[in-house]
Design brief:
mainly alpha; globular; 118 residues
Length: 118
Amino acid sequence: MDFIQPTTWEDALAAKAAQPDSVPIAGGTDVMVDLNFDQAVEEVGVQPHALASGAGHDAAIMAQVTPVTMLFVRCAGGLSHHPDESVSEADVEIAVDALARFVELVAERHSRSGERGR
């Protein structure tokens, strides 16, 4: 099985046009959504990093019915899914700003293209 891993918006559009019925692998994120989210993260002043998550997140189930991506907010000491988990208000603010910008980017692209998909 070949995996499509474009690194630019243009490559992703070309790959999607060449294989319009392609879907993300089960539990995987969608490259078109990931690229939009990466751009949003960059636009709020943070360098995005790819992070493979082996956990059985809700995204794994949701990926079966809709494109997904995940935004991880750094935790003090890397402690996650634990009562002692904590994040800074500044990091949460950046995450909220990135999410808002992501929604704006997707809306702008859909308005320009007249598309209803990704």
